[in-house]
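Notes from the 1:1 (GR / supervisor)

We went over the backlog. Supervisor wanted to see one worked example end to end before approving the batch request, so GR pasted a single chain during the call. The sequence is below; no edits were made to it. Supervisor asked that the structure be written out right there so they could see what the output format looks like.
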Amino acid sequence: MKRILLAPVFLVVMTAGCQNKTGTNITPGSNTSVSGTVTTGKWVVSYFYDNDKEETSDYNGYTFEFKNDNTLTATRNSGTITGTWNEVSDDGFQKMVIALNTTDDKLKELNDDWVIESRNDTQVKLKDDNPARNEQLHFSKQ
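Structure output shown during the call:
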């Protein structure tokens, strides 16, 4: 008898724990593909907000190139960091996945699966899909 009474409680707890992440202000399935946009030209970080403060200046001097073969380079002065990027669909959202091969803590902060919030020919706005992590990353064409 106790098992029958506990079953609805267990079901409610499990359902609440499995809900999709919220807090994004974009519509799932909206036309936010960046593949044709980011693969032309060089890009810079024009805005980066990490949880409680703006950290855009940490990326001053870096240029980013997103290549058609899904490789990525971040260049600053004479140093170049390589990595990969990809565009995926997850939970109904288009996401841009960035993976830089680096030990630099600031560049590692860009490694994530970012929800594509908006894009045009000169700017791509990304944000973390977890509302508990208030992170935003904007790239602008150089």
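Supervisor's comment: Helices lie at 2-17, 35-38, 105-108.
Batch request approved.
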